Amino acid sequence: MIYDGETRQVAARHADVTLQTIRDWVLWFNAEGPQGLLDGKSPGTPPKLDASQKAALVRVGDLLYAGGKAQRFTSPRIDSKNTHGTGCTLASSIAAGIAQGLPLAQAVARARAYVWQAIASAPGFGHGHGPLNHAHTVGEFTGVE
Questions:
Q1: Which of 4, 88, 121, 127 gives a 20 to 30 Å CA spacing to 98?
Q2: Angstrom distance (rounded) from CA 49 to CA 47
Q3: Rounded to an integer, what distance in angstroms lies between the CA atom of residue 34 and that of residue 78?
């Protein structure tokens, strides 16, 4: 979730879930990564996600809370282990959009699209959580000018 200086309580209210659900999601994600949000067991309090909430996890989302308003951004979840660096890439992409003069919500939307495509086109290096394809927007380089 992305939210500007607010609490988990505010995030829960805007996502229309309980605070316990937010806590469960954080624990599951920290323990198991994205897969933990689908079918893992929380290392803390027993899960309180019902079937409809679990079904909703086939989509991923962020919540932007700024200027007293909330805006949801969602996209299909990509089943990939190549997610190393997604947080830093998302934050840097948002910052780049803001530096280019985009309104915050537009910068977030563009950054999310960039990261989504970077995951979808990741090269699959390594045996663990591999890197994103940060160069997916770069044109082919022939080495000839």
A1: 121
A2: 6
A3: 10
> What would the pLDDT profile of 40-67 be if each residue is shown by its tens digit?
444 455 666 777 777 767 778 888 998 8
pLDDT at 97: 92
What tens digit of pLDDT does each residue of 35-44 get? Answer: 666 654 444 5
Burial category of 119 from C-beta neighbours within 10 Å (exposed 0-12, middle 13-18, buried 19 and up): buried
Could you identify the residue written with the tokens 């563009």?
A: 110
Give buried/exposed letters for 23-62 (b at 16+ CB in 10 A, else e): bbbebbeeebebebbeebebeeeebebeeeeeeebeebeb
Residues in the chain with pLDDT values less than 50: 1-3, 40-43
Which two tokens mark 62?
A: 């962020």
Residue 84 DSSP class: B
Round to whole Å and give the CA distance between 36 and 39: 6
